[in-house]
Amino acid sequence: MELIAFYIFAAIVTVSALAVVAARNPVHSVLWLILAFFTSAGLLVLIGAEFLAMLLVVVYVGAVAVLFLFVVMMLDVDFVELKQGFLSYLPFGALIGIAFIAEIALAGFARGSGNMAQFDASPGAETNTEAIGQVMYTDYFLLFQLAGLILLVAMIGAIVLTLRHKPGVKRQNIAKQTARRRRDATEAVQVEPGKGL
Amino acid sequence: MSGLIENNGLLIGWLLVLGQIGLFTLVLSLSIAFLLLLDRKVWAAVMMRKGPNVVGPFGLMQSFADFGKFLLKEIIIPAGANKTVFLLAPILTLTLAFAAWAAIPVAPGWVISDLNVGILYLFAISSLGVYGIIMGGWASNSKYPFLGSLRSAAQMVSYEVSIGLIIVTVILLAGSMNLTTIVDNQGGGFWTWHLFSFNNILMFPVMVVVFVMFFVSALAETNRPPFDLPEAESELVAGYQVEYSSTPYLLFMFGEYLNIVLMCAMMTLLFLGGWHGPIALGSDFVNQFPAWIVNLGHVAWFMAKIVFFFFLFALVKAIVPRYRYDQLMRLGWKIFLPTALAAVVIVGGYVVYAGVQT
Predict the structure, then answer these.
(1) What SS3 class is residue A165?
(2) Are the C-beta atoms of residues B24 and B101 closer than 8 Å to each other?
(3) Do A66 and B150 lie within an 8 Å CB cutoff?
(4) What is the tens place of the pLDDT at every residue in B291-330?
(5) Cα–Cα distances in Å, from A53 out to A44, A81, B120?
(6) What mean pLDDT do residues B18-46 have?
(7) CA A73 – CA A81 distance, rounded (Å)
(8) Do B117 and A54 count as a contact with CB atoms less than 8 A apart?
(9) H or E element that contains B314
């Protein structure tokens, strides 16, 4: 049962990953990428890492890929122009691809038999969630905090780079808007006939 | 659920599993039909109208008449649309909406899949709901749907953040991500419900604030008024649904209502004690009755709470005027996010230093 599920998931991941590269429309590429992410979450569930699987879906599929799709949809893509550069990029792309395959093969051989059943997704704890919490928040707490700090610095850097205060732009001041009352905006005037204001 | 296969052999076990899923889907679909009617009736009552009252007694069959109408009309696909994605979007919305319900326990043990990370699963699946809207808006190849889907993408991603942090506070109090355990943590009468949490009295003000934020975020997450900017009819005609007609539109609407009821169910499970009644009857009294009667009582409480929340959703739709988009973003990022973060810190500190009485 597990084996059948594994092969189904693995086949879908491979096909959708190929389709990411092969699809002509960039939006279709992103949609295939989302399918690949989602199916890899299924693979993670199969090896017992259910917490990681859910995080993959929440973070990558639910947030990162949405923003990705958001950006790609806004692009004004010229399909003819996009295909022209294919041959010039081919050697570089092939190089990266070969490097990837070599690394995966190396890892596979180094693990020896590479049996899925020997893998323990939650070493030293009952569930995968506990095991990850133990490692991240207890054993390697300092490194985890450092990684968070680095991310914070990157975030502040991005904000500083893009934040511009243009003079003369009208901005909403919510406090001022909600503080506005009827008597500030309207005035009752008795207009005499034939005179006007 | 997994016990069914182990106890009955492979073939009969699988048939039982499929039957269980089919029954749950059927009950859910029928409930949605009547909840839709309730939504329209409440809306009508607030406006001092009668609402749908022609089909069947009190208009009870209205949803079924609408269903037939949607099925029989012609499916129109715009000429410039991306046909595959255009049709895939509503199907995806409906599938995800149903898939999320697999982890919802309606009574002790009455759940299709009792996941260890049930609440994370719900959160993950509901965060995927945005894809149906984005795909539909993009594939329509038209301006209003596209604008609607862009708005929706930004809105749902923003409010997911606060929903996630609020869920963390509940997980901290319950000490588990399993929905059954979270509900059982609130089993001692209404004062132990996470909304009130009188047994951890210091947490009472925090949890009430957190619950209100969850309710508002749920409104935003399901694109309900006052946050229905993706389909604001005064600006975007009907947003991402403009080009949809007949069955695809039906699927979109059905998925949307399923998601709304799912949010009601999540609020019930996380804050209002799930299937537990407001007063714990004690095991001596309960054990007099056969197990299935007790469980039906649990289901009744669960459904009553969901209907109550749905009624609130319907009232909000009728009463509150629509937000402006910048106000929506401000509320999500500048008010809800810091408050939810503070709540996580406070609840976390309380759990560690004061210990939780469960």
Answers:
(1) coil
(2) yes
(3) no
(4) 778 888 888 888 899 999 999 999 998 888 888 888 888 8
(5) 5, 38, 10
(6) 89
(7) 17
(8) yes
(9) helix B291-319
Contact flag B123-A58 (C-beta cutoff 8 Å): yes
CB atoms within 10 A of CB B301: 19
A136 versus A196: which is more confidently predicted?
A136
Q: What is the pLDDT of residues A113-126, one digit of tens each?
A: 555 456 676 677 77
Distant-in-sequence, close-in-space partners of B356: CB < 8 Å, separation ≥ 6: B173, B175, B200, B350
The answer to pTM > 0.80 is yes
CB atoms B120 and A172 under 8 Å: no
Q: Are B133 and B235 a contacting pair, CB within 8 Å? A: no
Task: Select the residue of A28, A50, A61 nearest B117 (Cβ to Cβ).
Answer: A50
8 Å CB contact between B194 and B181? no
Q: Point out the residue among A62, A70, A128 whose CB comes nearest to the CB of B128.
A: A62
Nearest to A54 among B124, B130, B138 (CB): B124
**Residue A87 Cα, gap to closest chain B Cα (Å):** 28
DSSP notation for A9-52: HHHHHHHHHHHHHH-SSHHHHHHHHHHHHHHHHHHHHHTT-HHH
- Which residue of B lies nearest to A48 if distances are taken between CA atoms? B116
Q: How far is CA B193 from the centre of its chain?
A: 19
- Smallest CA–CA distance, residue B242 to chain A, in Å, is 18
B330: which chain A residues are within 8 Å (Cβ-Cβ)? 174
Name B179's Cβ contacts closer than 8 Å, sequence gap at least 6.
B103, B104, B105, B111, B114, B115, B118, B119, B122, B269, B274
Contact A61 B330 (CB under 8 A): no
- Supply the DSSP string of A82-128, one letter for each residue: HHHTHHHHHHHHHHHHHHHHHHHHHHHHHTTT--GGG--SSTTSSSH
Q: Tens digits of per-residue pLDDT, B94-112?
A: 999 898 888 888 878 778 8
Rounded Cα–Cα distance for residues A110 and B227 (Å): 54
Of B120, B128, B146, the CB nearest to A61: B128
**The two structure tokens encoding residue B134:** 């984005």
- Give residue B341's pLDDT: 92
HEC per residue, B100-111: HHHHCCCECCEC
